[in-house]
Amino acid sequence: MQDMQNGYDAYEMKDTTILEEPIGLESGIFGMETTSDSSKIASKEASPANSTPLKDDTPSNVNLALKYRPILFSELIGQESVSLTLSASLDSNKISNAYLFSGLRGSGKTSSARIMARSLECEKGISSHPCGVCDNCVLALKGNHPDIIEIDGASNRKIDDIRDLIEQTKYRPSVGRFKIFIIDEVHMLTKEAFNALLKTLEEPPSYVKFILATTDPLKMPATILSRTQHYRFKKISNAKLLAHLKTILEKEKVSYEEEALNLILKSQSGSVRDVLTMLEQAIIYSKQNLSVEAVSTMIGALNPSVFDELFLILSSGDMQKAREFVLSVRDYEAQMVIDELAFFIKTKVTNLELPLELATRYLRIINDARYDLQNDSDSDFCLLLCVLRMCEASKVLDIKTAIARAEASVLKEASSKDSLESKPSEGIPSKLEVRKDATLSASSKDFVVSTSVKERAQSENLEQEASQKVDKALEEVEQKPTFLELPKDTRYVLFLERLSFKDAELGEIFENFIEYKSFEDGILELDNFAPDELASIIRTRYSGIKLLLDEVFGSNLKLKVNKVLAKVTPKSASIDKDLP
Ligand SMILES: [Zn+2]
After folding, report:
1. DSSP string, 411-467
2. Residue 17 CA, ligand 1 centroid: distance in Å
3. 119 CA to middle of ligand 1, Å?
4. Is the complex ipTM higher than 0.90?
5. CATH assignment of 305-395, given 1.10.10, 3.30.70, 1.20.272, 1.20.120?
6. Looking at the domain 486-578, which fold is it?
7. What is the pLDDT of residue 190?
Protein backbone atom coordinates (compact mmCIF):
# COMPACT_ATOMS: atom_id res chain seq x y z
CA MET A 1 0.00 0.00 0.00
CA GLN A 2 2.78 2.34 0.96
CA ASP A 3 4.58 1.75 -2.32
CA MET A 4 1.47 2.28 -4.33
CA GLN A 5 0.81 5.47 -2.53
CA ASN A 6 4.32 6.67 -3.14
CA GLY A 7 3.84 5.86 -6.78
CA TYR A 8 0.76 7.98 -6.80
CA ASP A 9 2.50 10.83 -5.06
CA ALA A 10 5.37 10.68 -7.49
CA TYR A 11 2.95 10.87 -10.34
CA GLU A 12 1.21 13.86 -8.87
CA MET A 13 4.49 15.60 -8.23
CA LYS A 14 5.67 14.85 -11.72
CA ASP A 15 2.46 16.25 -13.04
CA THR A 16 3.12 19.50 -11.28
CA THR A 17 6.75 19.56 -12.36
CA ILE A 18 5.90 19.26 -16.00
CA LEU A 19 3.40 22.03 -15.66
CA GLU A 20 6.20 24.11 -14.19
CA GLU A 21 4.18 25.02 -11.16
CA PRO A 22 6.10 25.67 -7.99
CA ILE A 23 5.74 22.99 -5.38
CA GLY A 24 5.09 24.61 -2.11
CA LEU A 25 2.63 25.18 0.62
CA GLU A 26 -0.14 25.93 -1.79
CA SER A 27 0.32 23.12 -4.18
CA GLY A 28 1.77 19.98 -2.55
CA ILE A 29 -0.42 16.98 -2.92
CA PHE A 30 -3.44 19.19 -3.30
CA GLY A 31 -1.83 20.59 -6.37
CA MET A 32 -4.85 22.50 -7.46
CA GLU A 33 -5.70 24.05 -4.16
CA THR A 34 -5.04 27.77 -3.88
CA THR A 35 -7.52 29.10 -1.37
CA SER A 36 -6.09 30.16 1.95
CA ASP A 37 -8.45 27.77 3.71
CA SER A 38 -6.39 24.91 2.52
CA SER A 39 -3.04 26.05 3.79
CA LYS A 40 -3.37 24.12 6.99
CA ILE A 41 -3.98 20.82 5.26
CA ALA A 42 -1.57 21.54 2.48
CA SER A 43 1.25 22.35 4.83
CA LYS A 44 1.11 18.81 6.14
CA GLU A 45 2.04 17.65 2.70
CA ALA A 46 5.00 19.92 2.25
CA SER A 47 7.35 17.66 4.15
CA PRO A 48 11.03 17.61 3.14
CA ALA A 49 10.62 14.10 1.79
CA ASN A 50 8.39 15.08 -1.05
CA SER A 51 8.93 18.77 -1.44
CA THR A 52 11.64 18.23 -4.05
CA PRO A 53 10.08 17.80 -7.44
CA LEU A 54 10.99 14.61 -9.25
CA LYS A 55 13.06 15.21 -12.33
CA ASP A 56 11.81 13.84 -15.59
CA ASP A 57 14.90 12.28 -17.07
CA THR A 58 13.71 11.32 -20.52
CA PRO A 59 15.90 12.87 -23.18
CA SER A 60 12.94 14.46 -24.87
CA ASN A 61 11.52 15.34 -21.47
CA VAL A 62 8.26 13.68 -22.39
CA ASN A 63 6.08 12.21 -19.70
CA LEU A 64 3.92 9.85 -21.72
CA ALA A 65 1.39 9.31 -18.95
CA LEU A 66 0.90 13.05 -18.76
CA LYS A 67 1.08 13.72 -22.47
CA TYR A 68 -1.50 11.07 -23.29
CA ARG A 69 -3.79 11.43 -20.30
CA PRO A 70 -7.42 11.45 -21.38
CA ILE A 71 -8.93 14.91 -21.69
CA LEU A 72 -12.43 13.78 -22.65
CA PHE A 73 -14.54 10.81 -21.58
CA SER A 74 -14.26 9.45 -25.09
CA GLU A 75 -10.50 9.16 -24.62
CA LEU A 76 -10.70 6.93 -21.56
CA ILE A 77 -9.11 3.56 -22.25
CA GLY A 78 -11.27 0.50 -21.64
CA GLN A 79 -14.05 2.19 -19.64
CA GLU A 80 -16.72 2.51 -22.27
CA SER A 81 -19.73 1.82 -20.09
CA VAL A 82 -18.65 4.17 -17.30
CA SER A 83 -17.84 6.96 -19.72
CA LEU A 84 -21.14 6.52 -21.57
CA THR A 85 -23.20 6.61 -18.38
CA LEU A 86 -21.37 9.60 -16.96
CA SER A 87 -21.62 11.45 -20.27
CA ALA A 88 -25.34 10.76 -20.47
CA SER A 89 -26.00 12.03 -16.96
CA LEU A 90 -23.95 15.18 -17.61
CA ASP A 91 -25.61 15.87 -20.94
CA SER A 92 -29.05 15.47 -19.42
CA ASN A 93 -28.07 17.61 -16.42
CA LYS A 94 -28.81 14.88 -13.92
CA ILE A 95 -26.04 15.68 -11.51
CA SER A 96 -25.64 13.84 -8.26
CA ASN A 97 -24.19 15.35 -5.08
CA ALA A 98 -21.59 12.67 -4.69
CA TYR A 99 -19.96 10.16 -6.98
CA LEU A 100 -17.87 7.17 -6.10
CA PHE A 101 -15.41 5.81 -8.64
CA SER A 102 -14.02 2.43 -7.70
CA GLY A 103 -11.60 0.23 -9.56
CA LEU A 104 -8.04 -0.94 -9.81
CA ARG A 105 -5.15 1.42 -9.59
CA GLY A 106 -4.56 3.17 -12.90
CA SER A 107 -7.92 2.23 -14.37
CA GLY A 108 -8.85 5.86 -15.03
CA LYS A 109 -10.66 6.93 -11.86
CA THR A 110 -8.68 10.11 -11.21
CA SER A 111 -8.64 11.04 -14.89
CA SER A 112 -12.40 10.59 -14.98
CA ALA A 113 -12.83 12.67 -11.84
CA ARG A 114 -10.88 15.50 -13.46
CA ILE A 115 -12.83 15.28 -16.70
CA MET A 116 -16.02 15.25 -14.64
CA ALA A 117 -14.90 18.35 -12.75
CA ARG A 118 -14.18 20.23 -15.98
CA SER A 119 -17.49 19.09 -17.43
CA LEU A 120 -19.21 20.69 -14.44
CA GLU A 121 -17.17 23.90 -14.49
CA CYS A 122 -16.96 24.68 -18.22
CA GLU A 123 -18.34 28.12 -19.01
CA LYS A 124 -20.06 26.79 -22.13
CA GLY A 125 -22.39 24.89 -19.83
CA ILE A 126 -22.51 21.53 -18.13
CA SER A 127 -21.85 18.83 -20.70
CA SER A 128 -19.75 15.73 -21.25
CA HIS A 129 -17.59 17.75 -23.65
CA PRO A 130 -15.90 20.58 -21.75
CA CYS A 131 -14.66 23.09 -24.31
CA GLY A 132 -11.05 23.13 -23.13
CA VAL A 133 -10.57 26.81 -23.99
CA CYS A 134 -12.68 28.82 -21.55
CA ASP A 135 -11.03 30.24 -18.43
CA ASN A 136 -12.45 27.53 -16.20
CA CYS A 137 -11.33 24.75 -18.54
CA VAL A 138 -7.86 26.22 -18.94
CA LEU A 139 -7.42 26.67 -15.20
CA ALA A 140 -8.58 23.12 -14.58
CA LEU A 141 -6.37 21.66 -17.30
CA LYS A 142 -3.38 23.41 -15.76
CA GLY A 143 -4.37 22.05 -12.38
CA ASN A 144 -4.91 25.57 -11.07
CA HIS A 145 -8.66 25.79 -10.70
CA PRO A 146 -9.40 27.25 -7.26
CA ASP A 147 -12.73 25.46 -7.00
CA ILE A 148 -11.52 22.00 -7.93
CA ILE A 149 -9.90 20.63 -4.81
CA GLU A 150 -8.03 17.34 -4.91
CA ILE A 151 -7.38 15.60 -1.64
CA ASP A 152 -5.37 12.47 -1.04
CA GLY A 153 -7.39 10.43 1.41
CA ALA A 154 -4.40 8.35 2.43
CA SER A 155 -2.46 11.27 3.86
CA ASN A 156 -5.44 13.36 4.98
CA ARG A 157 -7.37 10.65 6.68
CA LYS A 158 -7.98 12.10 10.13
CA ILE A 159 -11.10 13.77 11.44
CA ASP A 160 -9.33 17.16 11.59
CA ASP A 161 -8.52 16.96 7.90
CA ILE A 162 -12.16 16.32 7.09
CA ARG A 163 -13.27 19.14 9.41
CA ASP A 164 -11.03 21.49 7.41
CA LEU A 165 -12.64 20.20 4.27
CA ILE A 166 -16.14 20.74 5.63
CA GLU A 167 -15.13 24.24 6.63
CA GLN A 168 -14.22 24.92 3.00
CA THR A 169 -17.64 23.83 1.80
CA LYS A 170 -19.08 26.87 3.55
CA TYR A 171 -17.50 29.23 1.04
CA ARG A 172 -19.09 29.61 -2.36
CA PRO A 173 -16.98 28.84 -5.44
CA SER A 174 -14.74 31.75 -6.37
CA VAL A 175 -14.72 31.43 -10.17
CA GLY A 176 -16.49 28.23 -11.07
CA ARG A 177 -20.05 27.00 -11.03
CA PHE A 178 -19.39 24.44 -8.30
CA LYS A 179 -16.92 23.72 -5.58
CA ILE A 180 -15.73 20.22 -6.39
CA PHE A 181 -13.91 17.98 -3.94
CA ILE A 182 -12.05 15.02 -5.39
CA ILE A 183 -10.99 12.67 -2.60
CA ASP A 184 -8.63 9.96 -3.80
CA GLU A 185 -8.12 6.70 -1.89
CA VAL A 186 -11.11 7.69 0.18
CA HIS A 187 -11.32 4.28 1.88
CA MET A 188 -8.24 5.30 3.89
CA LEU A 189 -10.24 7.80 5.96
CA THR A 190 -10.69 6.90 9.60
CA LYS A 191 -14.08 5.90 10.90
CA GLU A 192 -14.42 9.26 12.67
CA ALA A 193 -13.45 11.11 9.52
CA PHE A 194 -16.09 9.23 7.55
CA ASN A 195 -18.69 10.06 10.18
CA ALA A 196 -17.74 13.71 10.02
CA LEU A 197 -18.06 13.64 6.25
CA LEU A 198 -21.38 11.85 6.25
CA LYS A 199 -23.68 14.77 6.95
CA THR A 200 -22.06 17.06 4.39
CA LEU A 201 -22.16 14.27 1.86
CA GLU A 202 -25.86 13.82 2.48
CA GLU A 203 -26.91 17.45 2.35
CA PRO A 204 -24.15 19.51 0.84
CA PRO A 205 -24.68 23.13 -0.17
CA SER A 206 -26.06 23.25 -3.71
CA TYR A 207 -22.71 24.42 -5.08
CA VAL A 208 -20.71 21.52 -3.61
CA LYS A 209 -20.00 18.26 -5.44
CA PHE A 210 -17.98 15.30 -4.24
CA ILE A 211 -16.10 12.83 -6.39
CA LEU A 212 -14.66 10.03 -4.28
CA ALA A 213 -12.22 7.53 -5.74
CA THR A 214 -11.10 4.26 -4.23
CA THR A 215 -9.34 1.04 -5.07
CA ASP A 216 -11.16 -0.70 -2.25
CA PRO A 217 -14.87 0.16 -1.95
CA LEU A 218 -15.43 -2.78 0.41
CA LYS A 219 -13.51 -0.91 3.09
CA MET A 220 -15.98 1.95 2.99
CA PRO A 221 -18.88 2.32 5.41
CA ALA A 222 -22.24 1.37 3.96
CA THR A 223 -23.60 4.75 5.03
CA ILE A 224 -21.14 6.47 2.69
CA LEU A 225 -21.71 4.02 -0.15
CA SER A 226 -25.45 4.54 -0.01
CA ARG A 227 -25.05 8.29 -0.37
CA THR A 228 -23.00 8.15 -3.54
CA GLN A 229 -23.58 7.20 -7.12
CA HIS A 230 -21.22 4.31 -7.57
CA TYR A 231 -19.30 3.74 -10.82
CA ARG A 232 -17.16 0.65 -11.11
CA PHE A 233 -14.10 0.90 -13.33
CA LYS A 234 -13.16 -2.35 -15.00
CA LYS A 235 -9.71 -3.81 -15.24
CA ILE A 236 -8.40 -2.62 -18.57
CA SER A 237 -7.83 -5.53 -20.91
CA ASN A 238 -4.37 -6.13 -22.30
CA ALA A 239 -5.79 -5.95 -25.81
CA LYS A 240 -6.98 -2.38 -25.19
CA LEU A 241 -3.71 -1.42 -23.52
CA LEU A 242 -1.78 -2.91 -26.42
CA ALA A 243 -3.78 -0.88 -28.91
CA HIS A 244 -3.17 2.22 -26.79
CA LEU A 245 0.58 1.60 -26.70
CA LYS A 246 0.70 1.13 -30.45
CA THR A 247 -1.14 4.39 -31.04
CA ILE A 248 1.27 6.24 -28.78
CA LEU A 249 4.37 4.68 -30.33
CA GLU A 250 3.17 5.53 -33.79
CA LYS A 251 2.55 9.12 -32.73
CA GLU A 252 5.96 9.24 -31.07
CA LYS A 253 7.53 7.63 -34.14
CA VAL A 254 9.19 4.89 -32.13
CA SER A 255 9.69 1.52 -33.82
CA TYR A 256 8.64 -1.57 -31.90
CA GLU A 257 8.08 -5.31 -31.98
CA GLU A 258 4.61 -6.26 -30.82
CA GLU A 259 5.99 -9.06 -28.66
CA ALA A 260 8.06 -6.45 -26.80
CA LEU A 261 4.88 -4.55 -25.96
CA ASN A 262 3.33 -7.76 -24.68
CA LEU A 263 6.31 -8.18 -22.37
CA ILE A 264 5.71 -4.72 -20.96
CA LEU A 265 2.02 -5.45 -20.45
CA LYS A 266 2.76 -8.77 -18.81
CA SER A 267 5.11 -7.14 -16.33
CA GLN A 268 2.43 -4.68 -15.24
CA SER A 269 -0.98 -5.14 -13.73
CA GLY A 270 -3.26 -3.27 -16.07
CA SER A 271 -2.60 0.26 -14.85
CA VAL A 272 -2.36 2.68 -17.76
CA ARG A 273 -0.09 4.92 -15.75
CA ASP A 274 2.35 2.14 -14.82
CA VAL A 275 2.36 0.74 -18.32
CA LEU A 276 3.14 4.15 -19.80
CA THR A 277 5.89 4.74 -17.26
CA MET A 278 7.38 1.39 -18.20
CA LEU A 279 6.99 2.21 -21.88
CA GLU A 280 8.83 5.46 -21.33
CA GLN A 281 11.73 3.65 -19.66
CA ALA A 282 11.79 1.07 -22.42
CA ILE A 283 11.97 3.73 -25.11
CA ILE A 284 15.01 5.23 -23.43
CA TYR A 285 16.62 1.88 -22.68
CA SER A 286 16.13 0.55 -26.19
CA LYS A 287 17.16 3.83 -27.83
CA GLN A 288 13.84 4.33 -29.60
CA ASN A 289 13.64 0.77 -30.91
CA LEU A 290 11.51 -1.49 -28.74
CA SER A 291 12.87 -4.93 -29.55
CA VAL A 292 11.95 -8.06 -27.63
CA GLU A 293 15.57 -8.47 -26.69
CA ALA A 294 16.00 -4.98 -25.28
CA VAL A 295 12.73 -5.01 -23.37
CA SER A 296 13.21 -8.47 -21.92
CA THR A 297 16.69 -7.50 -20.76
CA MET A 298 15.38 -4.30 -19.26
CA ILE A 299 12.62 -5.89 -17.22
CA GLY A 300 14.68 -8.96 -16.40
CA ALA A 301 12.24 -11.25 -18.16
CA LEU A 302 13.08 -14.22 -20.30
CA ASN A 303 13.00 -13.65 -24.00
CA PRO A 304 9.89 -15.61 -25.05
CA SER A 305 11.84 -17.11 -27.94
CA VAL A 306 13.68 -19.37 -25.48
CA PHE A 307 10.42 -21.26 -25.04
CA ASP A 308 10.16 -21.84 -28.76
CA GLU A 309 13.58 -23.44 -28.47
CA LEU A 310 12.48 -25.46 -25.47
CA PHE A 311 9.50 -26.80 -27.37
CA LEU A 312 11.71 -28.01 -30.17
CA ILE A 313 13.81 -29.78 -27.56
CA LEU A 314 10.77 -31.30 -25.89
CA SER A 315 9.51 -32.63 -29.18
CA SER A 316 12.86 -34.18 -29.97
CA GLY A 317 12.79 -35.86 -26.57
CA ASP A 318 16.47 -35.04 -26.18
CA MET A 319 17.08 -35.16 -22.42
CA GLN A 320 20.63 -33.88 -22.79
CA LYS A 321 19.47 -30.77 -24.62
CA ALA A 322 16.69 -30.31 -22.08
CA ARG A 323 19.33 -30.28 -19.37
CA GLU A 324 21.36 -27.73 -21.31
CA PHE A 325 18.28 -25.56 -21.61
CA VAL A 326 17.86 -25.50 -17.85
CA LEU A 327 21.51 -24.51 -17.47
CA SER A 328 21.04 -21.69 -19.97
CA VAL A 329 18.29 -20.08 -17.90
CA ARG A 330 19.89 -20.53 -14.50
CA ASP A 331 20.39 -16.76 -14.16
CA TYR A 332 16.64 -16.38 -13.84
CA GLU A 333 14.43 -17.24 -10.91
CA ALA A 334 13.17 -20.79 -11.37
CA GLN A 335 9.75 -19.62 -10.23
CA MET A 336 9.66 -17.02 -13.00
CA VAL A 337 10.81 -19.49 -15.65
CA ILE A 338 8.06 -21.88 -14.61
CA ASP A 339 5.44 -19.14 -14.60
CA GLU A 340 6.54 -18.00 -18.04
CA LEU A 341 6.49 -21.57 -19.25
CA ALA A 342 2.91 -21.97 -18.04
CA PHE A 343 1.97 -18.72 -19.74
CA PHE A 344 3.61 -19.88 -22.96
CA ILE A 345 1.72 -23.17 -22.93
CA LYS A 346 -1.57 -21.43 -22.26
CA THR A 347 -0.91 -19.13 -25.20
CA LYS A 348 -0.18 -22.15 -27.40
CA VAL A 349 -3.44 -23.75 -26.33
CA THR A 350 -5.38 -20.54 -26.94
CA ASN A 351 -3.91 -20.35 -30.43
CA LEU A 352 -4.75 -24.02 -31.00
CA GLU A 353 -1.09 -24.76 -31.55
CA LEU A 354 -0.73 -27.45 -28.93
CA PRO A 355 -2.83 -30.59 -28.57
CA LEU A 356 -4.97 -30.35 -25.45
CA GLU A 357 -3.87 -33.68 -24.13
CA LEU A 358 -0.22 -32.77 -24.23
CA ALA A 359 -0.93 -29.30 -22.84
CA THR A 360 -2.81 -30.85 -19.93
CA ARG A 361 0.12 -33.10 -19.17
CA TYR A 362 2.54 -30.20 -19.35
CA LEU A 363 0.43 -28.05 -17.05
CA ARG A 364 0.11 -30.88 -14.56
CA ILE A 365 3.88 -31.22 -14.50
CA ILE A 366 4.23 -27.47 -14.06
CA ASN A 367 1.79 -27.50 -11.16
CA ASP A 368 3.82 -30.25 -9.54
CA ALA A 369 6.92 -28.15 -10.06
CA ARG A 370 5.27 -25.18 -8.36
CA TYR A 371 4.44 -27.39 -5.43
CA ASP A 372 8.01 -28.69 -5.34
CA LEU A 373 9.35 -25.15 -5.42
CA GLN A 374 7.42 -24.29 -2.28
CA ASN A 375 8.79 -27.29 -0.45
CA ASP A 376 12.30 -27.60 -1.80
CA SER A 377 14.96 -24.96 -1.53
CA ASP A 378 16.85 -26.33 -4.54
CA SER A 379 14.85 -24.42 -7.11
CA ASP A 380 17.25 -25.17 -9.97
CA PHE A 381 16.69 -28.85 -9.43
CA CYS A 382 12.92 -28.37 -9.38
CA LEU A 383 13.15 -26.65 -12.74
CA LEU A 384 15.37 -29.38 -14.15
CA LEU A 385 12.96 -32.04 -12.95
CA CYS A 386 10.06 -30.14 -14.48
CA VAL A 387 11.68 -29.80 -17.89
CA LEU A 388 12.88 -33.42 -17.96
CA ARG A 389 9.43 -34.65 -17.04
CA MET A 390 7.91 -32.55 -19.80
CA CYS A 391 10.45 -34.02 -22.16
CA GLU A 392 9.37 -37.48 -21.11
CA ALA A 393 5.68 -36.65 -21.39
CA SER A 394 6.25 -35.55 -24.97
CA LYS A 395 7.62 -38.98 -25.78
CA VAL A 396 4.88 -41.01 -24.22
CA LEU A 397 2.21 -41.72 -26.75
CA ASP A 398 -0.94 -43.31 -25.55
CA ILE A 399 -3.28 -45.39 -27.65
CA LYS A 400 -5.50 -42.48 -28.54
CA THR A 401 -2.54 -40.58 -29.85
CA ALA A 402 -1.47 -43.49 -31.97
CA ILE A 403 -4.95 -43.81 -33.40
CA ALA A 404 -5.07 -40.13 -34.23
CA ARG A 405 -1.70 -40.41 -35.91
CA ALA A 406 -2.74 -43.47 -37.82
CA GLU A 407 -5.74 -41.52 -39.00
CA ALA A 408 -3.49 -38.84 -40.38
CA SER A 409 -1.42 -41.57 -41.96
CA VAL A 410 -4.46 -43.15 -43.58
CA LEU A 411 -5.65 -39.84 -44.91
CA LYS A 412 -2.26 -39.18 -46.35
CA GLU A 413 -2.06 -42.58 -47.99
CA ALA A 414 -5.53 -42.15 -49.34
CA SER A 415 -4.78 -38.79 -50.85
CA SER A 416 -1.58 -39.94 -52.48
CA LYS A 417 -3.06 -43.07 -53.96
CA ASP A 418 -6.53 -41.79 -54.71
CA SER A 419 -7.61 -45.26 -53.85
CA LEU A 420 -10.80 -44.78 -51.94
CA GLU A 421 -12.66 -42.24 -53.98
CA SER A 422 -13.85 -42.55 -57.52
CA LYS A 423 -13.90 -38.76 -57.86
CA PRO A 424 -10.57 -37.43 -56.65
CA SER A 425 -11.76 -33.84 -56.37
CA GLU A 426 -14.33 -34.69 -53.71
CA GLY A 427 -13.67 -35.61 -50.14
CA ILE A 428 -10.00 -36.25 -50.54
CA PRO A 429 -7.97 -33.96 -48.40
CA SER A 430 -5.32 -31.89 -50.05
CA LYS A 431 -1.75 -32.32 -48.94
CA LEU A 432 -2.06 -29.32 -46.69
CA GLU A 433 -5.23 -30.66 -45.09
CA VAL A 434 -3.50 -33.91 -44.43
CA ARG A 435 -0.84 -32.02 -42.61
CA LYS A 436 -3.45 -30.14 -40.61
CA ASP A 437 -4.95 -33.45 -39.60
CA ALA A 438 -1.58 -34.59 -38.54
CA THR A 439 -1.22 -31.58 -36.30
CA LEU A 440 -4.47 -32.43 -34.54
CA SER A 441 -3.07 -35.62 -33.20
CA ALA A 442 -1.69 -35.39 -29.74
CA SER A 443 1.95 -35.78 -30.47
CA SER A 444 4.80 -33.46 -29.96
CA LYS A 445 6.31 -34.14 -33.35
CA ASP A 446 3.15 -33.14 -35.07
CA PHE A 447 2.99 -30.12 -32.85
CA VAL A 448 6.35 -28.99 -34.13
CA VAL A 449 5.09 -29.42 -37.63
CA SER A 450 2.03 -27.41 -36.74
CA THR A 451 4.21 -24.56 -35.59
CA SER A 452 6.22 -24.80 -38.75
CA VAL A 453 3.21 -24.80 -40.99
CA LYS A 454 1.46 -22.02 -39.22
CA GLU A 455 4.27 -19.61 -38.57
CA ARG A 456 6.63 -20.25 -41.37
CA ALA A 457 4.40 -21.31 -44.20
CA GLN A 458 5.61 -18.37 -46.25
CA SER A 459 8.86 -20.11 -46.82
CA GLU A 460 8.55 -22.95 -49.27
CA ASN A 461 11.68 -24.63 -48.03
CA LEU A 462 10.42 -24.70 -44.51
CA GLU A 463 7.12 -26.09 -45.61
CA GLN A 464 8.93 -28.83 -47.45
CA GLU A 465 10.89 -29.51 -44.32
CA ALA A 466 7.64 -29.68 -42.37
CA SER A 467 6.23 -32.10 -44.88
CA GLN A 468 9.29 -34.29 -44.47
CA LYS A 469 8.82 -34.22 -40.73
CA VAL A 470 5.23 -35.39 -41.11
CA ASP A 471 6.39 -38.18 -43.36
CA LYS A 472 9.00 -39.23 -40.85
CA ALA A 473 6.53 -39.13 -37.98
CA LEU A 474 4.02 -41.12 -39.96
CA GLU A 475 6.61 -43.69 -40.94
CA GLU A 476 7.37 -44.22 -37.30
CA VAL A 477 3.72 -44.71 -36.49
CA GLU A 478 3.38 -47.24 -39.27
CA GLN A 479 6.26 -49.17 -37.84
CA LYS A 480 4.74 -49.42 -34.39
CA PRO A 481 0.97 -49.29 -34.48
CA THR A 482 0.19 -49.32 -30.78
CA PHE A 483 -3.46 -50.18 -31.27
CA LEU A 484 -2.50 -53.73 -32.24
CA GLU A 485 -2.88 -54.36 -28.53
CA LEU A 486 -6.57 -53.55 -28.69
CA PRO A 487 -9.12 -56.40 -28.54
CA LYS A 488 -9.66 -57.84 -32.00
CA ASP A 489 -13.32 -56.98 -32.42
CA THR A 490 -12.69 -53.47 -31.08
CA ARG A 491 -10.18 -53.13 -33.85
CA TYR A 492 -12.79 -54.11 -36.40
CA VAL A 493 -15.15 -51.44 -35.01
CA LEU A 494 -12.31 -48.99 -35.29
CA PHE A 495 -11.76 -50.03 -38.89
CA LEU A 496 -15.48 -49.54 -39.64
CA GLU A 497 -15.44 -46.08 -38.12
CA ARG A 498 -12.41 -45.18 -40.13
CA LEU A 499 -13.91 -46.55 -43.31
CA SER A 500 -17.20 -44.68 -42.84
CA PHE A 501 -15.32 -41.49 -42.18
CA LYS A 502 -13.31 -41.92 -45.34
CA ASP A 503 -15.98 -43.35 -47.62
CA ALA A 504 -19.55 -43.19 -46.37
CA GLU A 505 -20.93 -45.49 -49.06
CA LEU A 506 -18.40 -48.23 -48.42
CA GLY A 507 -18.95 -47.80 -44.71
CA GLU A 508 -22.65 -48.42 -45.14
CA ILE A 509 -22.08 -51.48 -47.30
CA PHE A 510 -19.72 -52.95 -44.70
CA GLU A 511 -22.08 -52.03 -41.89
CA ASN A 512 -24.95 -53.89 -43.55
CA PHE A 513 -23.47 -56.70 -45.57
CA ILE A 514 -20.14 -57.66 -44.06
CA GLU A 515 -19.85 -59.44 -40.76
CA TYR A 516 -16.79 -59.87 -38.61
CA LYS A 517 -16.07 -63.56 -37.91
CA SER A 518 -12.64 -63.82 -36.38
CA PHE A 519 -9.04 -62.71 -36.41
CA GLU A 520 -6.55 -65.48 -35.73
CA ASP A 521 -2.91 -65.92 -36.72
CA GLY A 522 -2.92 -62.84 -38.88
CA ILE A 523 -6.00 -63.98 -40.78
CA LEU A 524 -9.09 -61.81 -40.71
CA GLU A 525 -12.21 -63.77 -41.54
CA LEU A 526 -15.30 -61.94 -42.76
CA ASP A 527 -18.70 -63.06 -43.99
CA ASN A 528 -19.87 -61.26 -47.10
CA PHE A 529 -23.64 -60.97 -47.61
CA ALA A 530 -23.43 -58.29 -50.26
CA PRO A 531 -25.36 -58.72 -53.50
CA ASP A 532 -23.18 -58.74 -56.62
CA GLU A 533 -23.75 -55.06 -57.44
CA LEU A 534 -22.42 -54.01 -54.06
CA ALA A 535 -19.69 -56.62 -54.05
CA SER A 536 -18.35 -55.10 -57.22
CA ILE A 537 -18.14 -51.69 -55.52
CA ILE A 538 -16.11 -53.33 -52.79
CA ARG A 539 -13.82 -54.93 -55.37
CA THR A 540 -13.13 -51.67 -57.22
CA ARG A 541 -12.21 -49.89 -54.00
CA TYR A 542 -10.42 -52.82 -52.47
CA SER A 543 -6.97 -51.26 -52.28
CA GLY A 544 -8.22 -48.46 -50.03
CA ILE A 545 -10.03 -50.92 -47.80
CA LYS A 546 -6.93 -53.06 -47.54
CA LEU A 547 -4.90 -50.01 -46.51
CA LEU A 548 -7.26 -49.29 -43.65
CA LEU A 549 -7.32 -52.93 -42.59
CA ASP A 550 -3.52 -53.01 -42.60
CA GLU A 551 -3.48 -49.91 -40.42
CA VAL A 552 -5.68 -51.50 -37.81
CA PHE A 553 -4.72 -55.17 -38.00
CA GLY A 554 -1.09 -54.92 -39.10
CA SER A 555 0.48 -54.99 -42.53
CA ASN A 556 0.88 -58.79 -42.76
CA LEU A 557 -2.86 -59.24 -42.62
CA LYS A 558 -4.40 -62.01 -44.69
CA LEU A 559 -8.03 -61.65 -45.58
CA LYS A 560 -10.51 -64.52 -45.79
CA VAL A 561 -13.92 -63.53 -47.12
CA ASN A 562 -16.77 -66.06 -47.16
CA LYS A 563 -19.38 -65.35 -49.76
CA VAL A 564 -22.74 -65.95 -48.05
CA LEU A 565 -25.97 -65.89 -50.03
CA ALA A 566 -28.46 -66.45 -47.22
CA LYS A 567 -28.75 -62.88 -46.12
CA VAL A 568 -30.73 -61.04 -48.77
CA THR A 569 -32.17 -58.11 -46.82
CA PRO A 570 -29.83 -55.55 -45.38
CA LYS A 571 -29.92 -54.75 -41.65
CA SER A 572 -30.89 -51.23 -42.54
CA ALA A 573 -33.03 -50.28 -45.49
CA SER A 574 -31.36 -47.01 -46.19
CA ILE A 575 -29.30 -48.36 -49.02
CA ASP A 576 -32.29 -49.95 -50.80
CA LYS A 577 -32.79 -47.11 -53.20
CA ASP A 578 -29.36 -47.72 -54.67
CA LEU A 579 -30.15 -51.33 -55.40
CA PRO A 580 -31.29 -52.22 -58.90
ZN1 LIG B 1 -14.79 25.27 -21.07
Report:
1. HHHHHHHT-S-SSTTSSPPPHHHHHHHHHHSS-HHHHHHHHHHHHHTT-HHHHHHHH
2. 24
3. 8
4. yes
5. 1.20.272
6. GMP Synthetase; Chain A, domain 3 (3.30.300)
7. 95
